[in-house]
Amino acid sequence: MPGLKMCCNSTLDSDFRFMKRNFFLSLFCLCALQAPVCVADNSVAGEVPRTGRIDRVYQLDYEVSFVPAEGSAHVAVTVRQPRNLLRSLSFEYDPTRYDGFSGDGVIEDTGSRLTWEPPGTGGTLKFSVVINHERGEAGRYDSLMRNHWAVFRGDDLLPPARIRALKGAASQARLRMSGPSGWSFISAYRRSENDPDWFEVDRTDRKFERPVGWMAAGNIGVRWGDRAGVRFAIAGPMGQGIRYSDIKAFLRWNLPTLVNIFPDFPKRILLVSAGDPMWRGGLSGPGSLYIHADRPLISANGTSTMLHELVHLAQGYRAVPGQDWIVEALAEFYTLEIMRRSGTLSGMDYKQGLEKLESWAGEEDILEADESSGPRTAKGVAVMQALDDELREMTAGRYSLDDVAGQLSLAGAPVSIEQLRQVAELLAGQPLESISPQRIDTD
């Protein structure tokens, strides 16, 4: 297939990828020395991956019961611990969506922030959450429950939380969902081999694990597939016009190229789809994404909303405030580039796609913004194209934008133009005009 670089075809290729990965690890360490330290919204400052000490592991059970007649889900968070490992849990919440807090131990509720101190040997916190949530224009939802189904993000079941815990303590979490008779449930998490009613919330990069990512419940259809070492599921409510076979074929065409560019792409993903009145776009989440059932797999300009969100899964990072265009432009650049390499787009289609984005970019003068607009993203694609061309020329084809994107993905930290310059210019061995302050500031 044109332009497709097949990985691990030989011992030489494997050795090269190993050396490249080690180079990027060293590169990230250099960049990290100059980057600000960020604390995740549900982590503890200074935390590191779990130690694995059995005497410092506490169990978290998330049990969620969907009640369509109420439009809400009843949530119970149970902590089981051998001693006082988890001292407290606190989170801000939207009082129009969350209410009915009760449970064991000490609960302090200000009306918008809740703090829970469970008993030393554990206990349960209970509350309710309204599932329906509008996004953008009135009557469009990014979380919705009907009589026979629900599409939502696990992030909504428990808001981002901060904890106090014994040093070295870590959680092992699982999720169980229930609802009216006949309802089925799916998430990006594996089901427990010992008890399939439970999903194993495996987030080993967090000491406090909570279920996140897109999920579906109710009368749903599910199609499974495997490609390029990725196990994927396509799911959504029955009768919503979801094109399971088309999506599956699209993934089979493009996942190998995507994984070749981003080797750390999740090994297991869930794609959730639904029709109106769900939001008519695409949204990514950890190990998962949502796309409206009517959204074309390939748009008129040659890009792809689905592939754009898949690249976000591969990136695994966000931008620092004001520089969202970097993340969005990389994702949009690779929607075209991946389809060109996989043969989904012809060379002419690829060229026309870039030209349409270039024309759209003329509607925007600046790149900086907390949320990148369509024209701003299109303008950023031109920057990424120029960076790719310049890197290839400066290194005689040894490095490209693939290497920059892969290193940023490996780092996993919020990206900035300064980090983009550091990574690219260390590869090139000199400053690059395509991302110089003069060009970025005057574009």
Structure summarized in a few sentences:
The protein is of the alpha+beta class and 443 residues long. It is 30% helix and 27% strand. The strands form four sheets. A six-stranded mixed beta sheet has the order 4-7-2-1-12-14, with no helix packed on it. A five-stranded antiparallel beta sheet has the order 8-9-10-15-13, with no helix packed on it.
Per-chain topology:
Blueprint: H1 11-32, E1 57-67, E2 72-80, E3 86-92, E4 98-103, E5 106-109, E6 113-117, E7 122-130, E8 133-134, E9 141-145, E10 149-153, E11 162-165, E12 170-178, E13 184-186, E14 198-201, E15 214-218, E16 220-227, E17 230-237, H2 244-261, E18 268-274, E19 282-285, E20 288-292, H3 305-315, H4 324-342, H5 347-361, H6 374-394, H7 401-411, H8 417-428, H9 437-442
Number of domains: 2
CATH C-level label of the largest domain: Mainly Alpha
What series of H and E elements makes up the topology? HEEEEEEEEEEEEEEEEEHEEEHHHHHHH
Gross morphology is: globular
Number of helices: 9
Distance between the termini: 35 Å
CATH topology of the largest domain: Neutral Protease, domain 2
Number of strands: 20
The helix/strand class is: alpha+beta
Largest sheet: 6 strands, mixed
Let me know the average pLDDT: 88
* Percent helix: 25-40%
